[in-house]
Design goal:
CATH architecture of the largest domain: 2-Layer Sandwich
Number of domains: 2
Largest sheet: 5 strands, mixed
CATH superfamily of the largest domain: OmpA-like domain
Length: 225
């Protein structure tokens, strides 16, 4: 009987010990879960803070981008409306986009139907060459010959185109002989195709018979390296 009671007592003690161990484990697990929960809540709070900071930075960048685009658009509008600067032409020359030009009546340069320069024309072309070598030393020089619409009859040229081309070439050769670089010079004949006035009167035809000399910026030049 005593032996049986002792056995029961030992079993009760063992069971109580086991129960006490389970309670301790549950408390530890609960404490661990609470700690992990606190860590997660802290990480979540920091993540929310980071997101809010990123959103503020994004909004700031968007505002700056909008302001930059508005500023660029305003600048484009100002540039579009700004007057294009025009270089002051040399005396006797007329300002044109990219440079200047001078028109010389063909009667100053040539006898009717001829392509040999008059002796008195050389003084005019000397002045032109001096201006080109001074004020327009970096520009291309384009020489255009022009005529009226009267057909060639006695001079022996095939047509007005040939006559205007030969006259432009005579002027180019003279300028080349007065230190204008050959690679800056272009000669072209327009014949009667680019009149300044109607050809229905002698005064109109007189305006159309001319040589035009252009000093132009070389950006749009062709055949150049």
């Amino acid at each position: 009987m005593l032996r049986r009671m002792c056995g029961c007592g030992i079993a009760v003690v063992v069971f109580a010990g086991l129960m006490g161990g389970c309670a301790s484990t549950d408390k530890d697990r609960a404490a661990g879960l609470e700690g992990a929960n606190r860590d997660l809540n802290g990480q979540l709070a920091r993540a929310r803070t980071d997101i809010e900071a990123c959103n503020r930075e994004r909004d700031s960048l968007n505002r700056r981008l909008t302001e930059a685009l508005q500023s660029a658009e305003s600048l484009r509008a100002q540039l579009a409306n700004a007057p294009v600067p025009v270089e002051e032409p040399a005396p006797g020359w007329t300002a044109v986009p990219g440079g200047a030009m001078i028109a010389i009546d063909d009667s100053v340069l040539f006898a009717p139907g001829k392509v040999v320069l008059r002796q008195e024309a050389k003084k005019t072309l000397d002045s032109v060459a001096s201006t080109i070598n001074g004020k327009y030393s970096t520009k291309d020089i384009l020489v255009f010959g022009h005529t009226d619409d009267q057909p060639i009859k006695k001079s022996g040229w095939e047509d007005n185109w040939q006559l205007s081309s030969e006259r432009a070439l005579a002027v180019v050769r003279y300028l080349k002989g007065h230190n204008v670089a050959a690679d800056r010079l272009v000669a072209a004949g327009c014949g009667e195709n680019r009149p300044r006035a109607k050809n229905d009167s002698e005064s109109g035809r007189l305006q159309n018979r001319r040589v035009e000399i252009f000093a132009i910026e070389p950006q749009s030049r062709t055949g150049r390296r």
